[in-house]
Design a protein that fits this description.
Layout lengths: L1 H28 L2 H10 L6 H4 L1 E12 L4 H25 L6 E5 L4 E6 L2 E10 L4 E9 L2 E13 L2 E6 L1 H15 L6 H5 L5 E8 L1
Antiparallel strand pairs: 1-2, 1-8, 2-3, 3-4, 4-5, 5-6, 6-7, 7-8
Amino acid sequence: MKRVIVICCVLMCFWGVQMAQAQSLKDILNSSKVKDVVNLVTGNVIKFSDLQGTWNYVEPACKMTSGDLLKEASGSLVTSALEKKMVNIYTKLGIVPGNFSYTFSSDSTFTNTIGKKVLKGTYSLDEKTRVLTLRYMLAKTITVKSVEVQLVKSGEQVSLLFNTEKLMNFVSVLSSALKKSDKTTPSLMDGYDEILLGFEMKK
């Protein structure tokens, strides 16, 4: 009888450990930082029709591309500091709430409004990879540059994300169109290879 009781106690302890480990794993997988990385990799489906309409700038977007939890823990401090720096750069370009928006039409044309300046172009979306290609027209007869943007959908918001090199290219396109310059951007982006930067947009 005692032997049976001992065995039952051992099994219950083992079961308790397993449940605790499972709960711990569940907590980790449900953490906001892991969700950010998972959403970046898998994301919500974004269809061509989902883009149509006007999207308004909310705030800078800054997401880690590494799934290493230790990096994520320390990375949150980096991204927070970087977001503050991005606010300064965006403000110089006029990218502030209520002043920066995209309108995507069903005929694959878009307008990018920055204050009183309206930039136009065409766009295409690879629904499988969620890569948005923007082709800006800075003159009536000249297609200037193509800019590739990674899209991540979260609820009612969409993040337009660039790696550091592509963001610098994008800032260069906007600076040229707005006849502005920001020499601090290249140095600001150094050493951030595992971070995607961009804009949080909402309809």
